[in-house]
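Notebook p. 47: complex prediction with 6-hydroxyuridine-5'-phosphate.
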Amino acid sequence: MLEGEFRRRILEKAFEKKSRVILAFDEHGEDAVNKLIVLCESLKEHVVGVKIGLPTMLSSGLQGLSRLIKRFKEDYVFIADVKMADVSHVNSLISRLLYETGFDAIISHGFIGYEGGLEGVFHEAERLGKGVIIVVSMSHPGSKDFIDPVSDRLVQIALKYMADGVVAPATRLRIVEEVRKTVGSSLLILTPGVGAQGAPYGAGLSAGADFEIIGRSITSSLNPVEKALEVKMEHGRILGQRAC
Ligand code: BMP
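Predicted complex, structure tokens below:
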């Protein structure tokens, strides 16, 4: 399978930094971008990607984020977490704005389906050589109501349209294991839910994920570098076991 640029870069960074950590940043307010700059400066050796959420985008605007991404684009991959779920022409506009801001990949919901929905995201991604990541299950209990019963079909959509990866929860490892069985090495699996949401560091990796998305445990820590190192050490232990 043809490896997309986003996927190639994030795996390259994982190898260089010996890290499987994607930082989730969701803070808002006047100082949010400055705080993210400080984190980006200090975590360069330990984190492969930065996933920026809507609270930050809405309070800081895309211009400030564009400058930040330009400054750190050699150090990290940047993921826009907008969990897209609109009709195609709107998805297409949002994707264009985010990709032109400098984001390397966008997270979209899969339940909107392809025709007249996801196609807007995939077309923009293809046109600009960028990445798409599809949510196939979420870390909160309510995901069992509507999303989890169709997780298998969401994974199939991600495979069919050659997404770069999927998001699946470290809080429900059976799902991560199932997704890995289905996709083999065709898609990256990114797992949120570790740390602040209760799953132990390394839980996602132990179930076969490629990366763990970690937010507040690092961003709210008094010593983010120390916390990232602690996580990295646990990841190293688990990847060592996985290799055996
Ligand atoms: P934290 O580690 O602070 O709980 O942050 C988790 C991050 O992962 C948040 O940015 C959230 O939007 C995201 N996320 C999640 O928690 N669960 C999901 O199912 C999907 C997500 O993208």
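Notes: The chain has one domain: 5-243. The chain has eleven helices and eight strands.
Next step: compare against the earlier run before touching the bench.
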